[in-house]
Amino acid sequence: MLHALPSLALLAQLLAAPAAVTAPAGAPAAPALFPFDVDTLDNGLTLVTVPTGPSGTVAYFTLVKAGSRDEVEPGKSGYAHLFEHLMFRGTKAVPAAAYEKKMQALGADANAFTTDDFTLYVPTIPKDSLADLVPLEADRFMHLDVAETPYKDETGAVLGEFNKDVANPYWKMDEAMRELAFTKHTYGHTTIGFEKDVRAMPASHAYSKAFFSRFYTPDDCVIFAVGDVKRDDVLARVTKEYAPWKGKRATTATTPEPEQTEPRLKALTWTGPTPPRMFVAYKVPAATNLDDVAAMAVLTTLLLGEPSALNQRLVVKEQKLLSLGVDPDDAMHKDPGLLPIAATLKPGATSFEEIGAAIQAAFDGVAKGGASPAEVAAARSHVKNALLLSMQTPASIAINLAAFTARTGDVHALDRYVAALARVTPEDLARVAKAYFTPARRTTVTLSPPPPTEKPDSSTVPAKKKFGGV
Fold this sequence. Notes:
Layout: H1 8-16, E1 37-40, E2 46-51, E3 57-64, H2 79-86, H3 96-105, E4 112-114, E5 119-121, E6 124-126, H4 130-143, H5 148-165, H6 169-181, H7 195-200, H8 205-215, E7 221-227, H9 231-242, E8 264-269, E9 277-284, H10 290-304, H11 309-317, E10 321-325, E11 337-345, H12 352-367, H13 373-389, H14 394-408, H15 413-423, H16 426-436, E12 442-448
Parallel strand pairs: 2-7, 8-12
Antiparallel strand pairs: 1-2, 3-5, 3-6, 3-7, 4-5, 9-11, 9-12, 10-11
Helix pairs in contact: 2-5, 4-9, 10-13, 10-15, 10-16, 12-16
């Protein structure tokens, strides 16, 4: 249920708008992309209300600032993702079947997703359903009640999802890349968790309750009400329903990752047919350093985006690659993380070593001052416009606001990021290329198809007998 904003005029204004001016530390940049109100209840729950005009729909998203990063206990990876499932299992007042029936009656598109740093619950509803949705959401966040039998059923569903994931070569590469790059930090495991931990989940019903009480607390949650809403109306409803919620978030004792001092490499062999693939990943700083995050987004767009010289050479002209890409959003993490570059090789056309060297040479060239002001301006404009074009619905606005909030701790971080983009210079690109995109900070994972099997010598193979002319 993705409904466009009431007019494309707003989007046009955003694309044409001058950059936001720099604001003092802790204050929002101005002018804001989407003006919004921020209210905090006495129990610590934050409400962000973003009116976008009379679209008739509302994204009522709840951010829980806990992800797989918070799974610090050995043997207990995957629980943030498990709760993405368990949160739909109902309460004593509204059991799972009743919750599903009520949500269908409201016309709600309800779902959720988990990341390294947060979990986001994403119901989108018609405007007139908001009054009935708020108490439903408040009930499940305050009173989730999952008995042992449905708990075990849901852990089985998660295991099924895990088994599906392992059939994807990219998932296997991601798992290997994380384990190789992170020796101490919890970014070393995937969001779904280690296989042994997922298989052990059915016996950990009591632990799941403890996990819920640690992180599903009002001070750890932010509600984003985006769309056809009014601040006073939403605030009154949220205050009424969530005021009784109690609890304080537990502290996550993550272990900082030691500095990487040399390149790391792991080669995988896939069990079935696949083109050769590789991840070339670099250690990058935490998202709180928005100036560097913005510079890295411009840098990777300039060097690896579809119009880039490297992409055009390797994919279009020389046809050594089937694809080359990077998602600047991957650089956004609460703690220092990884920015992976993905390449799919054309079989027999090149080698992993050649592609890795070409990518490194591109960063080295910028580190030496090889980016012109015109190139930087074009890449900077592309990054900003792509971001704005991705926010044409209440849901997409809410997702972006939530992601920036979770990773930086600042509800105004999206505006600050756009302001930082406008300030990126060629010197900034040279600085971040030199600081972060170096061989010492690089982790490479390659994946190859199985080696060809040798055909037997026909002279040594007995002739097959024929039966009935078949």
